[in-house]
Structures
1.
Amino acid sequence: MRTKPRNVVNTSQREWRRIVTALLAALAVIVTVVTMLVLSALNDVAQNTNKLDEERSRETITGALETFQAQLGATLNDYAAWDDAAQFVYAANGHDWVVSNYGDMTVNSELFDTALVIDENNRVQMFYQFGQPVLRSPQELFPTGLTELLKTVRQIPFGQNPETTGFVQSDRGITVVGAALIRPKMALDVPAGETRRYLVFARHLDTAKIKRLSKTYVVDGLQLRKANFDARYFVNIFSPQGEVLGKLTWRSRAPGDVSFREVRPTVLLAVVIAGLFFLTLFFVGSKIIGRIKTDEAHAKEEALRDRLSGLYNRAGLFQRLEQMVAKARLGSDDVNLLYLDLDGFKEVNDSYGHGTGDRLIKGVAAGLKMLVPQDAVLARLGGDEFAVAINGPYSKQQCLDLCEACLLLFSEPFVIGERVATIGCSIGVATSERGEVDGEELLRRADMAMYEAKENGRGRWVSYHEQLDTEREDRNMLEADLRRAIEKDELTVVFQPVVSAKSRRITGVEALVRWNRDGHGPVSPEVFIPVAETSGLIDQLGLIVLRKACMTARRWPEIKLSVNISPVQFRNPSFSTSVHDVLRQTQMEPERLRLEMTEGYFIQHPERASFVIEKLKALGVQIALDDFGAGFASVGYLRRFGFNRMKIDRSLVAALENGGRSLDMLEATVALARSLEIPVTAEGVESVEQASILQLCGCDELQGYLFSKPVSPEEVTLLLERQKATLPRDEQRAFG
């Protein structure tokens, strides 16, 4: 047997050994280099992390100081631009008000701890700190800075915001101080010259506030230092003149160093493992990255979609809308936006449940997809609101055609399983001509136009015009004044007598609310009641009227009291409880109270209406159907709800002058009520002839200007006394 020479074998082994050694050496070098590079990179990351943390802390503290100053500025604006302040501060007898609203507010206040009212000649009108009067001069408490702030405010030109804030040096350290001219909120017609008053608020940057800032903004060791204090991490506090008053310092948490020390052993091990599996991870990683990119693109698209309907959501609409606007600016096309709100969707949700409501939304989305142009953007903005954006050379006509098509679509009922839902829609339309209006403003305009359509009868479309902004502003001011009038108890209640059709003697009164708006005069209930209903004030307003009416009606125990109830109040689940509370508080006999309600709510929500009526009747209260003949109530509804009284709408009474069919209609209406044993009141009676006809037709009570206009409680009392005086003695005793 022949074998290789020993030296040949050794040579071969040595060569393999050299190769293996070289490979191992190369691997060792690679691992060492990679390890050094990784550790160096981690060290760089640690240093960058420390630097970023330092920058973040500096930006955070700078923002905290700005917020601290801005909060005082916002508070100062609220207290200086204030109609009540403009009235009492300049009044000779307003000192108590000034102390109560400014001085006393400095006790334990997070907004300001010092309040000063000073005139044009630097005479102190009121000076409080921490709830106590300050007997020292402002210059002693604020040796620098206050004078300059006041000078700045006084030099602000007419028409601009006469306010300023800044950090100053005080006897307690660094303080943020604000000065502002005291003036009405919506005007600048304050006294001129030496009669002007200025409000100064101060908020000291004391240790407690520094600790709160440190805790709120998660900054360790935050402290207030002098201007010359040597620190590595600090933010200067400047006066309005640019002088460094002090500095806020903190301790760096050095998150990069901490993290680096914790992960270094693991990184060394990971580098070795990473070297062995580098190639495998490279290929696997490539596949994962590709999948992540696909998922990310899918997630971005999903984030712009509404999950229920599959349409674009609000974010998706805004993105596409901005693209349309940008494209329109480059060309000559317009962008048109339709804003749709479903009428009656809430009732479907409440009656049939949210599952049915969700299926209805899907059905609406499917219907709209069939109507909108192919290149249009269809979105669900949330709830029962949808939007359609259209651009192109024919977008305006497409928009108008789509409005009519949508109204036609919603004129038909939607079949949802075994249920049938009848809803409508109100549409607002806005146009951005050649992209002059951005997407956000375009949506706001369309939304405003939609509300105009909803408030003017629903089931229609309205195009935006500038007058809507003015009307909305007027409405907002009316709402604000109404809210203030309710809070200040400025609403009054008058009473219109209701008389017996036979004896023409007073048998009851109807309570009617009146509002004399400050600076505007009387406002019709037809104007402010709808505002109260849409703004959520109607519950409060209605209970005020009910309470005042019941309290007043205690003077007239021999007659009944009628009070109108809004459908919004009737929808409140606690309404019957509120009525019970009013009756208990006013000690009003329930059988004397008659609540009047129009037929709309009974027809739309018969089950809920029946439930509430039963609860009210259980209290002993009577229910009257108001304005009958102006709507669509059927005999079935009259029989179902068992009304205690029916009030004929004034339109039927006014039509008597035409004779013929008007009289036949009136007779039929009264006959219907009498067949159901429901007594009838006719309102709006203005002539003797009308009263006679109504009596002959079977009305047992009459109400109108023929007998009396709405009058004050004192006049009602006088009318009752005169009526009592004309009765025989035995009837006087029965009358009370």
2.
Amino acid sequence: MSIQVFGMPVSRGVAIGRAVLVASSRVDVAHYFVGADRIDQEVLRLRAARDAVAAEIELLKNELPAEAPHELAALLDVHLMLLHDDTLAVATKGWITERHYNAEWALSAQLEVLARQFDEMEDAYLRERKADVEQVVERLLHALTRGERGAVDASAVSQAARDFAGEDPLVLVASDVAPADMLQFKRSVFTGFVTDVGGRTSHTAIVARSMDIPAVVGAREASRLIRQDDWLVIDGDAGVVIVNPSPIVLEEYRFRQRQSDLERARLNRLRHTPAVTLDGHAVELLANIESPGDGAGALEAGAVGVGLFRSEFLFMNRAGDLPGEDEQFEAYRDAVVALQGLPVTIRTVDVGADKPLERMSAQEVRREHGLNPALGLRAIRWSLSEPGMFRQQLRAILRASAYGKVRVLIPMVAHLGEVKLIFEALARARAQLDEAGRAYTRVEVGAMIEVPAAALMIDRFLRHFDFVSIGTNDLIQYTLAIDRADEAVAHLYDPWHPAVLHLLQATITRANQLGRSVSVCGEMAGDAVFTELLLAMGLRSFSMHPARIAAIKQRVLRADTRLLVAQMEKIAGADDPAEAWRQAAQGRVSH
């Protein structure tokens, strides 16, 4: 029977495919597909983990004191029995051999199946045994984590998924997806995403938009209502997921898919057309990228440079092992070379909040239940707390500057004291390169404006920085005191809020007056709804995912900034700027 699940639309379009569930777990695990040549190795990992856990339980049994309750020994026997039970052991192996899931994903998937079965049992005692299964699986997951996972072959990920999927497209369904997993899935074959939690600028939403695939987040019960292999339609415009649609509904959405493909092909013809407004203003359309391999796609999409290289993704999904200077240098150099002389802006590592590192979990993540991680040790705060790591990254970026035009971007700067420490670290990094005889050239240094304090101190910041880049996602979050990943308050996340528009306008205007370059690299830059508004504010540099460049360019080519600036005044004092701008847009069309 067909059902509908409602959530929040975050990436437009239609996706149709079979559901692939990523089950939730109290233990953070990696989710990735393994190639056919690694199936046996993954099964051996699972078997080794099972043997290790069995040995641990046997040791616990042997060391039980004589006065220990009999029930405790009986409970350990139950755990041993569950460990070797076919419903767990054999079925988990099946997820690996048939679905090409890695061992951790296979275990969490089978736990989800068993948990539902226990929940449906009428006997209360049997229902409570679900906790025993969860404990056994968590022991297994910890054992796998302690073992050596080995490198994930990105090229094999997509092929592994295709091996079991055949010609059927795939749709990912999860309670939530960790940023490291999203990076891995980005290289895979999913045509859409559905998550229980998240908001318009949660990391899952951002990556879905960056992949230019439909997504619905904050769908609450999606991962519970949807079963493995269900056929799904994701309506990314309406925020609706249709489970097992009827043939008529399916055909209607297939038609919409074809129309969308035609529109995308039409826009792609603009990719090498210069972005110039009707009244002659050149507009810089840059790309946001997450790995050196994204550089070629940025050029193909018509980007005139990289406005944001998110370097933190080099640090993630590595079991806490941070990349060394040479590894970072090679990644930055490859990105610079791929851009063929066009500028590359590399943001220093921005971790914390929704992007924790595995190595952070021992100390910082422990506090997350009591404190808001978005307000904690993240971005430049974390880098300055790890001065050796920070200088290492700066040295790698400086070395890459010998191969092309490089700019350094510092995230979440809020204090002048931080500015002083940043430039001291840069000076020390340069001195170390000089001592080692390493080549580098001068790089411009910029600040992310994503904390209201930074926007309000723009004059003082621009005494030190060569340029600024406005991160609208965090600027909106911090201005409105809203966790952008929390679906409970996602409806309050409002880019049209007068306070947000005031900070944007003031930052852009002042940077232009002082002769410093200013760009927007947050989600507003790639949303065509805001293109004319940002042009009216005086913005001439937009940075976005390459997939959005053609649509934004179309808006730029049709824009007359003289008319836009005149109409900007109408929304300055409006209580509802979105409605005022909509009415102004209608006037522009009639004009």
